[in-house]
Amino acid sequence: MKWNKSLFLTFCLLILACSLYRVWDGRPFGFMPQIALAIFGGAVIKNKKYSFLVPLLSMFLSDAFYQVLYSNGLSKIPGFYEGQITNYLLFIALTVFGFFARSFRALPIAAVSIAAPTAYFLLSNFQVWIGGGGYGRTSLLACYADGLPFYGWSLLSTLLFSGVFFGTYLLSSRSEKQPVLG
Predict the structure, then answer these.
(1) Is 181 inside a domain boundary?
(2) DSSP class of 28
(3) Any bridge partners for residue 181, and if so which?
(4) Which distant-in-sequence residues (6+ apart) come within 8 Å of 69 by Cβ?
(5) pTM of the model
(6) Which domain holds residue 89?
(7) Could you tell me if residue 182 is inside a domain?
(8) DSSP-assigned beta bridge partners for residue 45
């Protein structure tokens, strides 16, 4: 598909919707569409510069929303925090997993939808441990144990949202007979 105003607007709305969903009050922590969005962007957008930008924009927007809520006393979660750049780099890197799903077949999409949140879980909790352990814990295994509930929700949400993103895209592209964005 060639980039046009309509397609650009669709991706902007998708990024905005994912950002707003992440700050939705009451959702389980870790249950968010950003990892699936990174995979989807990596698989669908041929221009790597833009594919890496998709999850970054979504994370930044949701963090800005969190910061506004936090500054106004409506959330206990700050949007911007120390060490955040590492989290952004991890999300940008998750886009690479989408490169392995460009065949648009179910098995590669499912595989990267499991591998990406697993890599994020392992790397982000390792980063917490390197940074001092978090939650007063000092062992790497304790950091991983603390992150298990987040991992479960992250895995479930990535599988669900990947199914939604790829499924919707495949259904819409079949009607247009064009498989990948340019």
Answers:
(1) no
(2) P
(3) 45
(4) 23, 75, 77, 79
(5) 0.88
(6) 5-176
(7) no
(8) 181
